[in-house]
Amino acid sequence: MRADDPTELVPAGPSVREAPELAAELLGRYRSHRPVRGVGVTDLIDPRPAYWRVVSPIPPTPEQFARLRAGQSLHETLGRRLGPAATREFRVRRDGIVGRIDVLDGRPIELKSTDSPPREGEDLRASRPSYLEQLAMYAALVDRTDGRLVIVRAGAPGPSPVGVWDLRLRDPVAVRAEMNARAAALRTARDRHDPSGLPRCAWFDRGCPYRRASACDCSGQEVPLSPAILDAVESPLPNPSEGQRIADLLDQPTPPATEVARFRELAYPRRAFFDSWAEEATPPGVPEAGEPDETWSALHAILEDGPAGEYELRYAPSGTPEEPVECFRSEPCLVKSTRAARPIPAASLAADRPHYLLELALRCGGLGVSAGWLILGLERVPSEGEWIRVQRVQFREPSRLTDLVGRRAAQLTGARRRGGAAGLPRCPAWMFEGCPHRGVCGCGPGTAPGGE
């Protein structure tokens, strides 16, 4: 069986129809107010290194990678203890600035793990300005004047020490103005391939990896980063009682986490099996720098910049996968871009692009709903043309989709636990070329999949 076998969805009775009205509406938004390229909040903390991370990325050393993975694990555990899935990793976009808030439960909560936590009485404005700026920017993005900073000591034996500080903004408008100014400067630098207009790197004389690798030509005489965001932040107040509460939460037994992180793993479980096997064998490096897919990015920008609540992320009630489902007007949406010469008609979607139907079906199954949107960007059509195509997909029996999610998750989990890919469906033919696991998987055309 192939992973994107269209007959697998026949019992769910999918039907596809064109949605030209919505396509025209989205095109109208684009033409009346073209979205700018998204810039992440973390890039605005120190724009000059953010420029070099794209232009000349430096892979982490094995030691750095190990510390990163340990910090991520602690971060994820803490996030699960502090809020339900719907409040975690909350994505927000405003004026082209994109933030992913660790926990948004009334106010934004920023989680940090570090080998050297602040000492009692330490002035965070001086010692951890980036922590405060990041939290302030998240608060401003969601129109809040308060936030909470949680710092956990990584690698501590026994119960992890936890520090908590509550933060208030004097002027969220001033914070957003400075964010927009930094984002504009970073976009200009990237467009012109010239970082000279960016502020001085905060790490210039503190072991900057790009300076050490001779990747940048910083002199240290650049204009310093504006203090406008810190100036809009009141002195953070320690909250020891909340710190103790969180420390107690961390000291409890860790609840089991799902073994499936993304919907892509369910869509292509054989590839996911060998990907996870390869990750355990060797730490991944940083991918080569390259231009983002502008068509896909533009589609997301159009959706995210719409009315509040129109685009949102929802989590599967079962917790599997952990990845949230993108929703547009309360229904799952699958956003794709293609270099195909012609758009695929609705009547041909199941035969020509079965993986589109499968990926959307899994998202519908995760949420237990019966319909969703396929929003497609045509890369070869000029931006002045009809480059957006929308199709609506309706399923007759959503319960079968929920069963499909559970069945594929169980298959993949079982394969990982027993260390063999037997029983997992072949990847679709278009994935064979360029697959890094062809030598060990053996599921190419005309071959018996390895492990069968």
Structural commentary:
By secondary structure, this protein is of the alpha+beta class. The chain has 2 domains: 6-37 and 259-441, Alpha-Beta Complex (Lambda Exonuclease, Chain A), CATH 3.90.320; 39-250, Lambda Exonuclease, Chain A (Alpha-Beta Complex), CATH 3.90.320. The protein has helices at 20-32, 41-45, 47-55, 62-82, 124-127, 129-141, 172-192, 209-212, 228-231, 240-250, 263-267, 269-281, 294-304, 349-352, 354-367, 398-418, 438-441; strands at residues 15-18, 39-40, 88-94, 97-105, 107-114, 146-153, 162-168, 237-238, 311-314, 325-328, 331-338, 371-378, 388-394. The strands form 2 sheets. Strands 2, 3, 4, 5, 6, 7 and 8 form a 7-stranded mixed sheet that branches. A 6-stranded mixed sheet has the order 1-13-12-11-10-9, sandwiched between helices. Helix 3 runs parallel beside helix 7 (172-192). The protein starts with 14 loop residues before the first strand and ends in an 11-residue tail after the last helix. The model is unreliable at 279-292 (pLDDT under 50).
Main attributes?
452 residues, alpha+beta, Lambda Exonuclease, Chain A, 2 domains, seven-stranded mixed β-sheet, six-stranded mixed β-sheet, 17 helices, 13 strands
SSE blueprint and pairings:
Layout: E1 15-18, H1 20-32, E2 39-40, H2 41-45, H3 47-55, H4 62-82, E3 88-94, E4 97-105, E5 107-114, H5 124-127, H6 129-141, E6 146-153, E7 162-168, H7 172-192, H8 209-212, H9 228-231, E8 237-238, H10 240-250, H11 263-267, H12 269-281, H13 294-304, E9 311-314, E10 325-328, E11 331-338, H14 349-352, H15 354-367, E12 371-378, E13 388-394, H16 398-418, H17 438-441
Parallel strand pairs: 2-4, 5-6, 11-12
Antiparallel strand pairs: 1-13, 3-4, 4-5, 6-7, 7-8, 9-10, 10-11, 12-13
